[in-house]
Design goal:
heterodimer, A: 615 residues, alpha/beta, 19 helices, globular, B: 351 residues, eight-stranded mixed β-sheet, three-stranded antiparallel β-sheet, 19% strand, binds thiamine diphosphate, binds iron/sulfur cluster
Chain lengths: 615, 351
């Protein structure tokens, strides 16, 4: 095929692998991403997978980015098209001047290609079949063979890939050598038969540093280990299952008593989410740090118990790895769509603490911190991840732990304190911060026992339906929520290079795309101050940030501008001042999208200035 | 009202147990249930059983769901922590509590609406997990608190107070508990204190999931003719399997042996149950036989009471999870946190 101007780029391009679910391609594709990291070049990979185990299309995208942009970029420079089912769509998605890599064993009609791209055919099936007889081997090694060919085409150092394979198959010599063999089969074929390298190249750099490559769910699970969680109850649901699975494997490694071999944790796969949160609440009532991990439908089921946690003031941690809703929505696609559902979960007047980590390092920190917060505030804490952070590997600053750190077990009255004559009223606001003391069951033979219930009661935990007593309690809960404002992670502000009247608020997994979008916007002549919200309740700096700007864009990955609604509702802000920028097709938000949407709005502002807002 | 505390006065002549406690020490608030409610008799039996076992009241955690029956933990063991959770979800809360601190005694109190309808799943799963607990269902065949609707244990053909005939089949929680592997399964009648007290005591002593279904007539909505859970009906149809006493390594609490009919069951922790069989060839160790026995009598319209099955070698959820002996809620940073050196290694493995 003739091509006018093939894309030429070193360390800055997007390769997308189109595979069939269940073909064993995932590990080869991940190996590709890791190999580039070993070249010292940052990558940002993303799984794009169906809600299905076998047979349906799946994609794995690797953004090679020397600049270190960790958001999705959008567009594909090279498509490794291994799935005939999605061929047409895959070919169509390649950027003009891009590359198509395919299995050329069977001839394809020329109508199946495009004139403006470079087509690279490697007879993968033929090479595989002539080397292997076992069908499973044929399938698996075909993936390694295309990896080998890509090594040659992108000018990658095969030694670095070999080293990774060696680490992966340490102690399994046979697997190691057969994988390395397959790698070279592909590489040699490419070197002998194709023009290598292409315009797209990987060149050694030193841009990865000490960063780690980890999935958000795994980091959050580690946070739970470090944060001292001893009870985990969960029910499988994508994209949260891997939190509990990672917690299990971390616990197996770090939480067995060396003397007896016994477990210093308990993990129960509940029969459903109702049971999972019930177990968490029972355990936390009894003084253990407990959590569950779930996603939207699970949160729906848990809401009655969440109300109990709020009203009866029992600590609980829920990690909500959000996916596209409503209902079953798109179970394997990302969104930030449970903000309102979690902030006000359950019936009656409730408000819950939400934490919004932006990456694995914060997922680790916030997960660990959530247990301190839950016990200090005696309430439910939501750690709000989403599929994009949870189930994708991200380059992240290394996880850090201060060994001097002590768990904050909150206000717990001990037997000694009771014996000292301290007045114990379970719902007494002794310190004026809205947070009462609790006692663990079994503390004292005659003092400090009380009845926990979701029903209204007085300050001494005595059942009461008196209106004034109920209102007193509800007011204290508001005070407690205000206290929480200064305990949760504060928003982080970053100002534009030049003074500006415009701001942007964003949160969670939008972060890397936002960072990149700022550069794109600057290039278009737009300056924006940024505020990244990291928790609900909102710190007072959120309101002042909005007050300081004429307009503030609120970027989120849902249809209904849920964070914006929450800000408007909680801070009494004129909605006109908050301009929603919404991305909700289930794919991760990109810098291109943000810069496009905000840029267009800003351009428009310059032409016809909007009515001056009255605050 | 539930906030009325009982006067703390106790007569110096009241009998004391091994710990020096009187019955008063095992009481709670004054019941707000209807006078004559079967649930109050069960409360009295729980108090008696705990007194006889010389349990430290504050070492018991009493957990319930929602319903008249679920209110009862407020009426016994006033010095222990209680938890009225949400409707039907007592078992999960109890499971979590037990995981956090294996050293307390867990008493789960529930109703038939609570356990056989909305909480049927949780009932089943807590039993199959072998949570170390005494799970008591105060079974009146109706929803008491919501005023008389049929529950899932109401017999087919029985009539509600409003005259409606129940056309659904009944769930027999005892049969299900047996099927799910409960290692202690019993049924009793709230009015039969001499049978119920030792059953509760034995269930508390038992390690593993102990389930007792207690037929407990509801004075307000299920004591009419046509009901199969009324006092009269149950008294007429009660076919006791056995009587039992508990020997806790000390003197038996009550002795009522009929010569030649005593069977001693040794539990895992060394405590022994002496069973007095009324039905000569009934073997409490035989789960299958218990199921058949139950079904056979059910077909005859009879209610079988007594200890139906026990596995004295039972293990519990903590055994299955192989957790440490110390309660998980007592572990501190040193025991739980792998520390920064381990984290550095983890970081290194992720590069
Ligand atoms: C989620 C939910 N649904 C319904 C109710 C209303 N409700 C309260 S008690 C009860 C039934 C109680 O029946 P049972 O467990 O048999 O106890 P009883 O009152 O008969 O002792 C119901 C349906 C509730 N509290 N919560
Ligand atoms: S309504 Fe029935 S179950 Fe409830 S307290 Fe009265 S008698 Fe007991």
């Amino acid at each position: 095929m003739s091509v006018q101007s093939p894309i030429s780029s070193v360390n800055d391009f997007v390769v997308r692998f189109a595979n069939v679910n269940g073909s064993g391609s995932a590990s080869a594709n991940e190996l590709f991403a890791r190999s580039i990291l070993r070249h010292g070049v940052p990558v940002s990979p993303r799984n794009i997978f169906p809600s299905n185990i076998q047979g349906l299309p799946t994609w794995y995208e690797v953004r090679v980015t020397e600049e270190g942009h960790l958001g999705a970029r959008g567009g594909v420079d090279m498509m490794v098209a291994m799935n005939p089912q999605t061929w047409d769509k895959d070919v169509a998605s390649i950027e003009p001047g891009g590359y198509l890599f395919y299995d050329s064993t069977k001839p394809m009609p020329s109508s199946k290609f495009r004139a403006d791209i470079t087509v690279i055919g490697v007879p993968l099936t033929a090479i595989t079949n002539s080397t292997y007889t076992d069908p499973r081997q044929r399938q698996l090694f075909k993936n390694i063979i295309y990896l080998g060919a890509l090594c040659a085409l992108l000018d990658m150092d095969p030694k670095l890939v070999e080293q990774l394979i060696a680490e992966q198959y340490k102690g399994k010599e046979k697997l190691l050598s057969s994988n390395v063999h397959a790698l070279h089969l592909g590489r040699d074929w490419a070197l002998q038969n194709l023009k290598c390298p292409l315009g797209l190249r990987v060149k050694k750099a030193d841009k990865v540093g000490d960063r780690i490559f980890i999935e958000g769910n795994s980091a959050a699970a580690l946070g739970a280990v470090y944060g001292g969680a001893t009870v985990c109850a969960w029910y499988p649901i994508t994209p949260s299952s891997s939190v509990a699975e990672a917690f299990t494997s971390h616990c197996k490694k770090y939480r067995h008593d060396p003397a007896t071999g016994k477990a210093k944790y308990a993990i129960v796969q509940g029969e459903d989410e109702l049971a999972s949160i019930g177990i968490v609440i029972g355990a936390a009532w009894n003084g253990a740090r407990a959590f569950t991990a779930t996603s939207g439908p699970g949160v729906s089921l848990m809401t009655e118990f969440i109300g109990l946690s709020y009203f009866a003031e029992i600590p609980a941690v829920i990690m909500n790895i959000q996916r596209a809703g409503p209902s079953t929505g798109m179970p394997t696609r990302t969104q930030q769509c449970d903000i309102i559902a979690c902030a006000y979960a359950s019936h009656g007047d409730t408000k819950h603490v939400l934490l919004f980590p932006e990456d694995p390092a914060e997922a680790f920190e916030f997960a660990a911190q959530s247990f301190d917060l839950a016990e200090r505030l005696q309430t439910v804490i939501f750690v709000m991840l989403d599929l994009d952070i949870g189930m994708n590997h991200r380059l992240s600053r290394p996880l850090k732990w201060d060994d001097a750190r002590q768990y904050d077990r909150g206000k717990v009255m001990t037997a000694e304190m009771l014996d000292d004559g301290r007045d114990f009223g379970r719902y007494l606001d002794v310190d004026g911060d809205g947070i009462p003391y609790r006692t663990y069951p079994g503390t004292h033979p005659t003092k400090g026992s009380y009845f926990t219930r979701g029903t209204s009661r007085d300050r001494y935990a005595r059942y009461s339906e008196e209106g004034a007593v109920y209102a007193d309690n509800m007011q204290r809960l508001v005070r407690k929520f205000e206290t929480a404002q200064d305990m949760v992670p504060r928003p982080l502000q970053a100002n534009a290079a030049k003074p500006t009247k415009y701001g942007v608020i964003y949160f969670g997994s939008t972060s890397p795309a936002m960072d990149e979008a700022i550069g794109l916007l600057e290039a278009r002549g737009h300056q924006l101050d940024r505020l990244r919200i990291r928790a609900f309740p909102f710190h007072s700096s959120v309101a002042s940030f909005i007050a300081d700007h004429d307009f503030v864009y609120v970027v989120e990955q849902n249809r209904d501008a849920q964070l914006r609604s929450l800000i408007v509702n909680e801070n009494g802000i004129d909605p006109v001042r908050l301009i929603p920028i919404l991305h909700y097709d289930g794919t991760p938000i990109t810098a291109r999208f943000i810069a496009g949407a905000i840029g267009d709005h800003q351009d428009h502002l310059k032409v016809t200035p909007l009515r001056k807002a009255v605050s | 009202m539930t906030y009325i505390a009982k006067p703390k006065f106790s007569h110096p002549g009241l009998p004391r147990n091994e710990l020096g406690f009187t019955h008063r020490d095992y009481e709670g608030k004054i019941s707000t249930l209807c006078a004559g409610c079967g649930h109050d008799s069960i409360t009295a039996s729980i108090i008696e059983a705990c007194f006889e076992l010389s349990i430290e009241p504050h070492r018991v955690a009493k957990i319930s769901g929602i319903g008249c029956s679920s209110k009862t933990p407020d009426y016994f063991l006033g010095n222990s922590h209680g938890f009225n959770s949400v409707h039907g979800r007592m078992p999960s809360v109890l499971t979590g509590a037990n995981l956090a601190n294996r050293d307390l005694i867990y008493l789960g109190v529930s109703g038939d609406g609570d356990s056989a309808s909305i909480g049927f799943g949780q009932f089943a799963h807590s039993i199959r997990r072998g949570v170390n607990m005494t799970y008591i269902v105060e079974n009146n065949g109706v929803y008491g608190l919501t005023k008389g609707q049929f529950s899932a244990t109401a017999d087919r053909g029985s009539k509600s107070k409003k005259g409606v005939t129940n056309t659904d089949n009944a769930i027999d929680l005892v049969a299900i508990a047996l099927q799910l592997g409960a290692t202690f399964v019993a049924r009793s009648f709230s009015g039969d204190k001499s049978q119920l007290v030792p059953l509760i005591a034995a269930a508390i002593e038992h390690k593993g999931a102990a389930f007792i279904d207690v037929i407990s007539p509801c004075i307000a909505f299920n004591n009419h003719s046509g009901s199969t859970k009324s006092f009269d009906y149950v008294r007429e149809h009660n076919d006791a399997v056995n009587r039992l006493d508990v020997i806790t390594g000390r003197d038996p609490i009550t002795v009522d042996y009929a010569p030649g009919t005593v069977q001693v069951v040794e539990q895992h922790d060394g405590t022994r149950l002496a069973l007095r069989k009324i039905d000569a060839d009934y073997d409490v160790h035989d789960r299958l036989a218990a199921m058949t026995f139950l079904q056979k009598h059910a077909a005859k319209g009879q209610i079988v009471t007594g200890l139906l099955h026990i596995d004295p070698e039972a293990s519990d959820l903590h055994d299955h999870l192989d957790t440490v002996a110390a309660p998980l809620n007592t572990l501190d940073e040193a025991a739980l946190c792998p520390g920064s050196a381990a984290l550095d290694k983890i970081n290194a493995s992720l590069r």
